[in-house]
Amino acid sequence: MIGSGRNIAFWYEPWLGKDLVWELCVFEGTAVPLPSASVADMVDELGQWKWHLLERCLPLDILLRIAAVKPPAGLSIDDSPCWSHTPNGNIQVKSAYWSRMGIQSEPLEHVWKTIQDFKGLPRIKHFLWLLCHEKL
């Protein structure tokens, strides 16, 4: 999570989602401005992004993603790591397992929910459960 932005490398850490900013760039022979810059270094004294540096090397869609993020405004709050595989940034054993196994979301989550909420005969619900577990 971005606090002060001083400890997050602007180009080489995934602060803008799951991707690194330099991987999203179209440089066309242009060098990365301030290659060792932190996120805080890319904010001016008025608390705005340094657009004059970013517009030279980033495509419009990335500039719009950056514009959607509030720049760190000299806060004394420390930056903290977050887990990119969950919406709230907190690590969970199951999300770590899914990440390791290459699973993008909970397998069959919507199917299990549908079976759980099924209002028909219990034997049909049991049949569906057996079917999904490949026990027939």
Topology:
Layout: H1 51-54, H2 60-67, H3 93-101, H4 109-116, H5 122-132
Organism: Hibiscus sabdariffa
Protein name: Reverse transcriptase zinc-binding domain-containing protein
Account of the protein in words:
With 136 residues, the chain is mainly alpha-helical. Helices cover 29% and strands 0% of the residues. Helix 4 runs antiparallel to helix 5. This is Reverse transcriptase zinc-binding domain-containing protein.
Beta-strand percentage range: under 5%
Q: What does the largest sheet look like? A: none
Rg (C-alpha, Å)? 22 Å
The H/E string reads: HHHHH
Summed over residues and divided by their number, the pLDDT gives a mean of 78
Q: Distance between the terminal alpha carbons, to the nearest Å?
A: 47 Å
SSE class: mainly alpha
Helix content: 25-40%
Low-confidence stretches: none
Produce a short descriptive summary.
This protein is mostly helical. It has helices spanning 51-54, 60-67, 93-101, 109-116, 122-132. It has 5 helices and no strands.
Q: Descriptors for this entry?
A:
5 helices, mainly alpha, 136 residues
